[in-house]
Amino acid sequence: MIAIAVVAADGPPVKKPRATLGDRVVEPAWEQRLTLTVGPTNADVVGLSEKPIQAAVDYVARFGGGTMKILPGIYRLRNAVYLQSKVRLLGSGAETVLVKEPSVTTGLAQDSDWFDQEITLAGIGIAELVWHREDHLCPS
Question: What pLDDT does 124 receive?
Fold first, then answer.
């Protein structure tokens, strides 16, 4: 068996660009759409975590799309930010820093049942759990 590879140096020029997978060929007029800012102060949505970023993305998406600008700051993300269609996310260059916080994993000390309203974690005493500023229950 002989394998033949054909490689075109340059394909023919595209004269009529077309959308692929439902994408539009032309970008929307972003300046005519809603723009929100997220930042530590003097922003439309104030905060330094994934929660204000997600809230701004969702808000812009509900109004048909637009731009969400992340102002300079260090943002600590404990969860993912889920982008939506027609929403553009812009940072402020090197001054916008997104930090993924480390995850914490622990096992269960006791198996849970369908109607249980509480769980028992292994290796963590109740005195070791503290409330952080953004209402997250985290090991100290």
Answer: 66
Residue ranges of E strands in the chain: 34-39, 45-46, 66-70, 73-77, 87-90, 96-100, 129-131, 137-139
19-30 pLDDT per residue, tens: 555 555 567 788
E-only strand ranges, 33-92: 34-39, 45-46, 66-70, 73-77, 87-90
How far apart (Å, rounded) are the C-alpha atoms in residues 83 and 44? Answer: 18
- Residue in this structure with the two tokens 């930010």, named with its chain if needed: 81
Structure pTM? 0.62
Sheet holding 66-70, edge to edge: 45-46, 34-39, 66-70, 87-90
Q: Cα–Cα distance between 35 and 42 in angstroms, integer?
A: 14
Domain ranges of the chain: 27-101, 104-140
Gap between the Cα atoms of 95 and 112, Å rounded: 45
Instruction: Look at residue 131 in the predicted model and tell me its pLDDT.
Output: 46
